[in-house]
Design a protein that fits this description.
Elements lengths: L1 H7 L12 E3 L18 E5 L9 E5 L7 E7 L8 E11 L19 E9 L10 E10 L10 E12 L13 E9 L8 E4 L1 E2 L5 E2 L4 E7 L5 E8 L6 E2 L8 E8 L7 E11 L5 E10 L9 H6 L10 E5 L10 E10 L14 E11 L11 E16 L2
Parallel strand pairs: 3-9
Antiparallel strand pairs: 1-8, 2-13, 3-10, 4-9, 5-8, 5-10, 5-13, 6-7, 6-9, 11-12, 14-22, 15-22, 16-21, 17-20, 17-22, 18-19, 18-21
Length: 392
């Protein structure tokens, strides 16, 4: 597991402009977080469903010329010594490879270079200026040309920080936000080319709900503990090529001793091999009552915020040829689940829950017919759950 932990660990805290912040090793829309009710030693907050702030981000000629905040999360009032652990997913989608009704902006055939990072800021749309970068960027080149077009390019960022002198923050302690910033560039851009934040639809609209920003705040004057649980045993070695259904639990991790207010920070990695055709690979992380459950049961949906989902569902085209997601392609997921109540059985006894990585695949071929070989899940992936709990 040493390899998987190293791969899934958050990137180092950016040094520039962070005099008020100290990194912790190893670690919605505007105003749309899970409710925070009164002082607590541990607080988990997330952006709401369909939390993307905008539909598109411009592709500029120069690197970093036109960054945009695409997710924003209001934090509880910060105090010196507070620890903030955070992670996020965001999906950038290329568009307009052809002049079709789903085209958004100007057509382009180049492969945009995309970066995503997190800033601490005062405003929901702040991307630079006084905003402080608190996580190293995730970056990739999203392939636009067929047959190796990725189309959707999910990105993952995350890290942790400790609050220092509040007067050095870029925001009032009672009005600080974490923002996910997205930027795209290519020297051949002429103006009007964009990447979509979320997914483009056949009618030219944009579907959000393909990313989420989460944070867990451990109070300096409280007593919160953290336990890291990991697992790399594959529950399945194959994913069926299925246009309907076909979901399988690839990794599962049991979590015991859960109580109201506990926070589960999750990271996952999956390696998938395909052959013959590009395949779409989609994944999500859920909290469930059984290790083989693909969806949360009704009781779990009632006691875990966001109806038992730790991440949204997103994915990409895994390709045979060179691309950002070339076979064997790597899925990365990052999310969070917060407990509203302790899980108990019918007799009132504590019961465990399971964090499950659920995936499905299908071939990318117009009007596909017949049988297709399954995708293979390779070794080298795994699931890491960081169980945060306040003293009881």
């Amino acid at each position: 597991m040493r390899g998987i932990r190293g791969t899934l660990r958050g990137a180092g805290l950016a040094a520039a402009g962070c005099a008020a912040l100290v990194a912790i090793p190893g670690s919605g829309s505007a105003g749309g977080a899970d409710p925070v009710d009164g002082p607590r030693a541990l607080i988990g907050v997330s952006t709401p469903r369909q939390g993307e702030l905008r539909d598109t981000v411009p592709i500029s000629r120069r690197k970093g010329a036109e960054p945009r905040a695409v997710l924003s999360l209001e934090l509880p009032r910060l105090k010196p010594g507070d620890r903030v652990r955070f992670n996020a997913e965001v999906t950038a989608t290329t568009t307009c490879v052809e002049a079709l009704p789903r085209c958004i902006g100007r057509r382009y055939g180049f492969d945009p270079r995309i970066r995503a990072w997190v800033v601490l800021a005062a405003g929901a749309r702040d991307a630079r200026g006084r905003a402080i970068r608190v996580a190293a960027p995730d970056r990739l080149t999203c392939e636009q040309s067929r047959p190796n077009r990725n189309h959707h390019c999910p990105m993952v960022v995350g890290d942790a920080l400790r609050v220092g002198a509040v007067e050095r923050l870029p925001c009032r302690p009672s009005a600080c936000r974490l923002n996910v910033v997205l930027a795209a560039h290519h020297p051949n851009a002429r103006g009007g080319e964009v990447v979509v934040v979320g997914a483009d639809r056949p009618d030219g609209s944009v579907e959000g709900g393909k990313g989420r920003l989460n944070a867990a705040v451990a109070r300096a004057d409280g007593d919160a503990t953290a336990e890291t649980l990991s697992g790399a045993r594959r529950r399945v070695r194959k994913l069926p090529a299925s246009f309907k259904g076909g979901q399988r639990v690839v990794y599962s991790r049991r979590v015991d001793g859960l109580a109201a207010g506990d926070v589960l920070l999750v990271r996952a990695r999956q390696r998938t091999r395909i052959r013959g055709l590009p395949y779409f690979v989609a994944s999500k992380v859920v909290v469930a009552s059984r290790p083989a459950a693909r969806i949360p049961s009704p009781p779990v949906r009632r006691i875990v915020r966001r109806r038992g989902t730790a991440t949204d569902t997103n994915g990409f085209n895994c390709t045979i040829g060179a691309s950002a997601f070339r076979s064997p392609c790597t899925t990365r997921k990052a999310g969070m689940a917060t407990l509203k109540r302790a899980p108990r059985d019918a007799r009132g006894r504590p019961r465990p829950l399971y964090v499950n990585l659920v995936s499905r695949t299908f071939p990318k071929r117009a009007q596909a017919r017949g049988a297709y070989p399954p995708a293979r899940v390779l070794s080298g992936g795994g699931l890491v759950v960081r169980h945060l709990r306040a003293s009881r």
